[in-house]
Design a protein that fits this description.
It contains eleven helices and 13 strands. It has 371 residues and is an alpha/beta fold. The protein has a single domain (8-194, 293-369), classed as TIM Barrel (Alpha-Beta Barrel), CATH 3.20.20. A 13-stranded mixed β-sheet has the order 1-13-12-11-2-3-4-5-6-7-10-9-8. Helix 1 (78-90) packs parallel to helix 2 and helix 3 (138-148) packs parallel to helix 5 (175-188). It is globular and about 60 Å long. It starts with 13 loop residues before the first strand and ends with a helix. The structure holds S-adenosylmethionine (SAM) and iron/sulfur cluster (SF4) (2 copies). Residues 50, 56-57, 99-100, 102, 132-134, 156, 196, 198, 225, 227-228, 230, 234, 366-367, 370-371 line the site of S-adenosylmethionine (SAM).
């Protein structure tokens, strides 16, 4: 394939090349969107590939051998990612989450972490650097990630029962290896570790209490996530969602819990603590209690498209600016304008009954844009 041919996978999701305004503006660190929301959190997808095939994210029926993932030359390089992270930081981003696909599949990911530790926020402080992983390669990588400067890690784990877990990842991957990855992260001192469980009715909701029992008293915060209608591959139905209120009822029946005040605006999880002092859990109610009002998150896809909402159908091609020789100030001006125009609030509009809203364009997939 010649260099000028654009790979099919690059064209899968619509994106515009932003117009660089005539008047350039230095970022102030205080950009805000149409609903007064700042830009604090940047999620960077490092790869669209994964070694799992979770049915709610990359069902095998769609993500099979024929599926065309992005070719290597489409991906942002570590230098390009770091350059963009600097521009985002100048606009107020203080936290970066590396995600995917499976971010630990990206070769030498720890080198990127080390490069990102050099970036300073608008307040002059280093960024908070976190990573979300399925945990399969964590036992091997935890120490290198910590040594490179990663602040924290979040591990996705949907079941403790080995048979249920193997079925859910659909690659026959054993749960013991993920638990070993979590242990390695603890040993490495990778901050306050969080475990995310996507709850699906009839698939793993019978694991809610055993997961809570396992992580109670461990210092690890287990968070229950409502199954979301992201993308267009998972065949989402509202009746598969277990509302957080029901998760809480099931937990309260075992152990009394009380709410904890949020520590930061824009926090996605509602925090609860066991009254007996055995720690905290989180409830992420993306479907039944939308949190768009405080959403300060931007998402950068593997090949450098900016999405201002998880449910967006159209991105902004920042890679074209990077590779087109634009300066940091030009890219910062574009970013300021794009964020200033943002008015996304998909989950609020969707409504609690689960009626989808959209433009009819292809919605981005979770494995492509990250959590
Ligand atoms: N592969 C890594 C992992 O699984 O942690 C990182 C990427 S994954 C797309 C990020 C998070 O999105 C995971 O916690 C996953 O469980 C969650 N996720 C994926 N599809 C989802 C869906 N339809 N509803 C809710 N959460 C979802
Ligand atoms: Fe892979 Fe994570 Fe998606 Fe599961 S949720 S298929 S581990 S990207
Ligand atoms: Fe943010 Fe969009 Fe999710 Fe609302 S639906 S919380 S705006 S990503």
């Amino acid at each position: 394939m010649g260099e000028s041919v654009i790979p099919l996978a690059d064209l899968r999701y619509a994106a515009e090349v932003p117009v660089v305004p005539q008047r350039l503006r230095e970022p102030t660190g205080l950009v805000s969107d149409q609903l007064g929301r700042p830009l604090h959190d940047l999620r960077i997808s490092l790869t669209d590939r994964c070694n799992f095939r979770c049915g709610y994210c990359m069902p095998k029926s769609v993500f099979d051998r024929e599926y065309q993932f992005l070719p290597h030359r489409s991906l942002l390089s570590f230098e390009e990612i770091t350059r963009l992270a600097r521009v985002f930081a100048a606009h107020g981003v203080s936290k970066v989450r590396l995600t995917g696909g499976e971010p630990l599949l990206r070769r030498n990911v720890e080198d990127l972490v080390a490069m990102l530790t050099e970036v300073r926020g608008a307040d002059g402080e280093p960024l908070e650097l976190t990573l979300t992983t399925n945990g399969s390669l964590l036992a091997r990588k935890a120490h290198a990630l910590k040594a490179a400067g990663l602040s924290r890690v979040t591990v996705s784990l949907d079941a403790l029962d080995d048979a249920v877990f193997r079925r859910m990842n659909d690659m026959d991957f054993p749960v013991a290896d993920v638990l070993a990855g979590i242990d390695a992260a603890v040993q490495a001192g990778l901050g306050k570790i969080k475990v995310n469980m996507v709850v699906q009715r009839g698939i793993n909701d019978h694991e809610i209490v055993s997961m809570a029992r396992h992580f109670r008293g461990s210092g690890i915060v287990l968070r229950f996530i409502e199954y979301m209608d992201v993308g267009a591959s998972n065949g989402w139905r509202m009746d598969q969602v277990v509302p957080s209120a029901q998760v809480l009822d099931r937990l309260q029946a075992q152990w009394p819990l009380e709410p904890v005040a949020p520590t930061a605006r824009g926090e996605t999880a509602e925090r609860w603590r066991y009254r007996d002092g055995a720690g905290e859990i989180g409830l992420i109610s993306s479907v039944t209690k939308a949190f768009c009002r405080d959403c300060n998150r931007a998402r950068l896809s593997t090949e450098g498209k900016l999405f201002t909402c998880l449910f967006a159908t159209r991105g902004h091609d920042l890679r074209a600016l990077l590779r087109g020789g634009r300066s940091d100030l030009e890219i910062a001006t574009v970013l300021g304008e794009l964020w200033g125009r943002r008015s996304d609030r998909y989950s609020e509009l969707r409504g609690a009954e689960g009626t989808a809203v959209g433009t009819g364009e292809r919605r981005i997939e979770m494995h492509y844009i990250g959590g």
